[in-house]
């Protein structure tokens, strides 16, 4: 699964109607609703939208015939294996009716082209953990941890004898990271995972 790195915009004219798609990464339903509210253009004829965050999703046709706008936008999100994404397609009516099939193609196609143009990042399931290390182990430990792919040092708090490192690391590499910490410090430091 992937999400968007940042907000993306794409527009096109179809039979004199202007379609403008805006897509953004969102982490929750509340973020999706805030994005929709911020993007809503009251001067437009329709602001159709869809979002997906995990198993939760919603869509709206905003006055277009049922199933011709919101659902095709959601299908564009799902068709590109995206999660944590909200898309709004705004339509300024140009006077020519597109019919149901034309609306599905216009809304779904505009959303899909916007999403294709967006920079995507892989969603990595992470767990958080903590290491208490003495000063003598700290430099080599940080060097070895920095070599692990997708591991992030969230914080470093110094104590009288060393430091406490807060980490976020890929769930599937957590066991390997625990062994690395123990091996590098000869068992003096242990990576404690938040789930454990």
UniProtKB/TrEMBL annotation:
- Domain named Impact N-terminal: residues: 15-114
Pfam families noted in UniProt = Impact_N
UniProt-listed PROSITE patterns: UPF0029
Q: Which GO terms describe its cellular component?
A: cytoplasm
The record's InterPro entries line, in alphabetical order, gives: Impact, Impact_N, Impact_N_sf, Ribosomal_Su5_D2-typ_SF, UPF0029_Impact_CS
Q: What GO biological process terms does the UniProt entry carry, in alphabetical order?
A: regulation of translational initiation
Into which family does the record put it? Belongs to the IMPACT family.
Protein's UniProt name: Impact N-terminal domain-containing protein
């Amino acid at each position: 699964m992937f999400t968007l790195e940042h907000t993306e915009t794409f527009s096109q004219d179809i039979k004199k109607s202007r379609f403008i798609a805006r897509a953004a990464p969102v982490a929750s339903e509340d973020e999706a609703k805030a994005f929709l509210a911020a993007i809503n253009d009251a001067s437009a004829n329709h602001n159709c939208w869809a979002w997906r965050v995990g198993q939760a999703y919603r869509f709206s046709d905003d006055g277009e015939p049922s199933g011709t706008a919101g659902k095709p936008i959601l299908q564009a999100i799902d068709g590109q294996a995206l999660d944590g994404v909200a898309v709004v397609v705004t339509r300024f009516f140009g006077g020519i009716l597109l019919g149901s099939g034309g609306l599905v193609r216009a809304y779904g196609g505009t959303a899909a082209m916007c999403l294709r143009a967006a920079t995507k990042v892989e969603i990595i399931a992470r767990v958080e953990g903590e290491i208490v290390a003495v000063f003598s182990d700290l430099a080599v430990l940080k060097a070895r941890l920095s070599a692990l792919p997708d591991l992030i040092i969230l914080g470093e708090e110094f104590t009288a004898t060393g430091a406490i490192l807060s980490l976020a690391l890929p769930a599937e590499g957590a066991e390997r990271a625990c062994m690395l910490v123990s091996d590098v410090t000869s068992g003096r430091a242990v990576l404690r995972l938040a789930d454990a």
